[in-house]
Amino acid sequence: MSNSPENFDWDKFESQGFGSGYSKDEKAEMEKMYGDTLTTVQEQEVVKGIVVGITDRDVILNIGFKSDGLVPISEFRDLPDLKAGDEVEVFIEDQEDPNGQLILSRKKAKIVSAWARIYDALENDNILDGVVKRRTKGGLIMDIHGVEAFLPGSQIDVKPIRDFDVFVGKKMEVKVVKINAAFDNVVVSHKVLIEKDLEQQRAAILNNLEKGQVLEGVIKNMTNFGVFIDLGGVDGLLHITDISWGRINHPEEVLNLDQKVNVVVLDFDEDKKRISLGMKQLTPHPWDALPAEIEVGSKVKGRIVNVADYGAFLELMPGVEGLIHVSEMSWSQHLRNPQDFIKQNDEVEAVVLTLDREERKMSLGIKQLTEDPWTKEDVLTKYAVGTKHTGIVRNLTNFGLFLELEEGVDGLVHVSDLSWTKKIKHPSEFVKVGENLDVVVLELDVPNRRLALGHKQLEENPWDTFESVFNIGSVHKATVLDKSDRGAVLELPYGIEGFTFPKGLTKEDGSQVEAGETLDFRVTEFSKEDRKIILSHTASHSEVESTRASRATKKTAAGAPAASGEKKDKAPKVMKEADRSTLGDLDALSALKEQMLENEKEAGVKKLEAAAAKKTPSNDEESTESTDAAEDETNA
Fold this sequence. Notes:
This protein has about 625 residues and is of the alpha+beta class. Helices cover about 25% and strands about 35% of the residues. The chain contains eleven helices and 30 strands. It has a five-stranded mixed barrel with strand order 1-2-3-5-4. A hairpin with a 3-residue loop joins strand 11 and strand 12.
């Protein structure tokens, strides 16, 4: 058989070559037909492909290229019903890898398409759908067609959101508000969509709004000064003072977030779009329900709701308060802090002092519950002149101090009535506020509620005794306390002070006495009325000064006038009487006078020692030292 393979002419066939049986026109037509079945593709672009096969690992796609491409099946999890013949978009990563395979990616195609939609949405103000993937600091992260976008917490809703977790996993419509191409960041907003819907509601509410209108709203935010209420697209402020007729410290005491409440429009500013709301105005005022038996002079009970510097407020019933001024808390004339008498939330009884139902004002008093101490029957005998008392120092002034003997009874101790011996410039040098002080009543004036008190009057006036101890010409040990250009202040025995002029500070060697030194000083002048003693150290060692002091002593003893204001015509009479006296009489009188002065001095010293021993009976050593010093001065 000629057609059998054994009879086939292989040499003739091979010499013709593959396709040699076609003419040029036929070959060109066939090449054109094959070229039309292929497309030219570029890397890094998105194209459409048709599923031609699905394996366990990959999906085989035909994009019209000379070879099919492979895409991992994991990128089609969102298409569980994928089958051959379906058309999908893919991204060309590589036309030919080392194995000659076309590499495609559906994931990257979705991202490229998503970014294209995002840019188009920003430019054309389109709405995009997304899914909330998770919450983050300050907002939510959304998945918009494979691109992560940030939704700030302030852009979720028109009202504040306290829990972001409730949005995780939910679908949400958003608008693109910002794109940062350098960092591929997208910021979206859901609030703008809500605001557009609320614009019409807000316009309708504002157009129909009027004072006195009652509306229903939802509490969206709380502050220390009040709450903001959503009236359905527009917010109003409910001030804390308009929540309740009673006093509250914070709105959360009576209200809760997201609570529906009825409010009344108190005021409306059309320009600023501000609405003032009230809640307590929907109920009757509690002053209208105040019992008629409450009047001036009646006793009432209540709770302290506020304590201020000037007083405290007593709440008789919610919305009805009265002021207890600090001056009405105690009969004491010295105002103190109201916190010293009462505390917040204390249950207190008071007396109505004034009542104005029209103005809704009331003043109360606590001290009126007790008797005024100045009106008691025994006040005249209890605080009679000369009676002794112990009180508490309440206040110090430049002229003296105020002593509280009992609640409501105060007295003044003048600074000059504090000590016989010390010159006190300010009461703080002698006593402190809050300390106890013994006093004697010097003057009582019940109608004017005044008491004059004295502290030094508890003891005898030592200047009566000092007159015999510190007589002119006597020498005493003294310590220089302070020295100035005018002279020096000296500390004398028995706690009194003396003064010396600069000329009396010269020592025997010509040097000057300095502060802190203890030396002998001679008394050159003594005034019991002025409580003044002038001394001189120079006179203690200078014969001239000593003679002058001695002459002054003799003149005083002889009855010579000590004051310059006496008449001068008495001197000739004394001289005439002296001329009639004999020399022996003068000597006898002088000796007798010196003996009398010495006896008076000894008696005075003993009296002062007894007084010192009475003040400090337990200190035997100090008493002995004081006695020895007195004896030394007597001997001197």
